[in-house]
Design brief:
about 375 residues; alpha+beta; globular; binds guanosine-5'-triphosphate; binds magnesium ion; Translation initiation factor IF-2
Length: about 375
């Protein structure tokens, strides 16, 4: 049977929830604001206000969208590349590590094209792909999580062997733990004279990260971005941890992904780096992300080349949005051309109402402060 919460009913018929609860009480029903009541009861309450409740309580476009986001049948799932974020304290060598990994692990036919910076890129290790997110530090990570985008499968925590655990190291550990993302520690700069990897391992035990040699379950790999020592081992460990996670996706459905970063480009309009997380995004697809919607006009991969499709774990630059979406926004490709626009408009209206509420509160506060 059709159910509606007291809160939704109150919004639908424009009557205070408290009054509705009172009326329900008189009908012998003890209800709270979040309680679901059946259609007949709801209709009865509405009729007390001379309002006739329509039988089909229309769904919001947001609900239609989330209904389309059904779970995949396990038979449709295939392995997908792991998505890895590199975190760590300032100057511990995150960018240096990313740079050497990238420069040593693109295939010959791809190389030469690594000029594009799209905030994410893929490398190839013994025929297996790994996606790296080049997010600018923890803030982006936190922001994305706060907005519901869980994009990272594995975090590589970079700790400089000559500096040890520092404030942002601890922050990174906390973020990864909160997001339940497995951590692989890369103890970097082991080429330096003052390097002391053992000391780093010791310090990390205080934060619950105990290396396997010491009976723990955290993978720790001593590396050097300068001599490239340990890098192959690090990448192998990434693949190993990924394998245990059984990362899977269904390439044969409409795409769902996350906005990694976005900007307004003078010549090209709104441009967003999208990480496809499920399904396949195609040129021509109707899309919505936050309050931005549109149609994929063109896509560029991490090497700056035009592509027609992007499957699970593939990062692409997407052109064709109506406005600049925000990092962390979830992207959906939808079958129905109108739906993307409707969802975006509904969200914008909601934002407006939210802003109006804040503004009216502010002006009331101001009013009172002046009395
Ligand atoms: P932020 O982006 O500022 O947080 O720094 P980062 O973590 O990206 O560090 P970055 O890669 O910029 O490296 C900082 C400094 O450490 C640079 O001068 C690098 O050359 C140096 N460095 C990085 N890795 C190594 C290494 O393995 N060995 C040595 N000796 N120096 C390194
Ligand atoms: Mg850096």
């Amino acid at each position: 049977t059709e159910m509606v919460s007291v809160k939704d009913l109150s919004e639908k018929i424009g009557k205070p929830a408290a009054e509705i609860i009172k009326k329900l009480f008189l009908l012998g029903i003890l209800a709270t604001i979040n309680q679901e009541i059946d259609f007949d009861t709801a209709a009865l309450v509405a009729s007390e206000y001379d309002i006739e409740l329509e039988h089909k309580m229309d769904k919001t476009f947001e609900e239609v969208l989330s209904d389309e986001d059904h779970e995949d049948d396990s038979k449709d799932l295939e392995n997908r590349p792991p998505v890895v974020t590199i975190m760590g304290h300032v100057d511990h060598g995150k960018t240096s590590l990313l740079d050497v990994i990238r420069s040593t692990h693109v295939t010959d036919q791809e190389s030469g094209g690594i000029t594009q910076h799209i905030g994410a890129y893929m490398v190839n290790v013994h025929g297996q792909a790994i996606t790296f997110l080049d997010t600018p530090g923890h803030e982006a990570f936190t922001a994305m999580r706060a907005r519901g985008a869980q994009v990272t499968d594995i975090a590589i925590l970079v700790v400089a062997a000559d500096d040890g655990v520092m404030p942002q190291t601890i922050e990174a550990i906390n973020h990864s733990k909160a997001a339940e993302v497995p951590i692989i520690v890369a103890i970097n700069k082991i080429d330096k004279p003052g390097a002391n990897p053992e000391k780093v391992m010791q310090e990390l035990t205080e934060y619950g990260l105990v290396c396997e040699d010491w009976g723990g379950d955290t993978v720790m790999v001593p590396v050097s971005a300068h001599t490239k020592e340990g890098l192959d081992k690090l990448l192998e460990m990434v693949l190993l941890v990924a394998e245990m996670q059984e990362l899977r996706a269904n390439a044969n459905r409409m795409a769902k992904g996350s906005i990694i970063e976005a900007k307004l480009d003078k010549g090209r309009g709104p441009v967003a780096t999208v990480l496809v997380q499920n399904g396949t995004l195609k040129v021509g697809d109707t899309i919505v992300a936050g309050t931005a919607y549109g149609r994929v006009r063109a896509m560029l991969n991490d090497k700056g080349r035009r592509v027609d499709e992007a499957g699970p774990s593939v990062p692409v630059e997407v052109l064709g949005f109506s406005e600049v979406p925000e990092a962390g926004d979830v992207l959906y490709a939808v079958e129905d051309d109108k739906l993307s626009r409707q969802v975006a408009e509904e969200r914008r209206n909601k934002q407006k109402i939210q802003q109006m509420k804040v503004m009216s509160k502010v002006s009331l506060d101001e009013l009172f402060s002046q009395i």
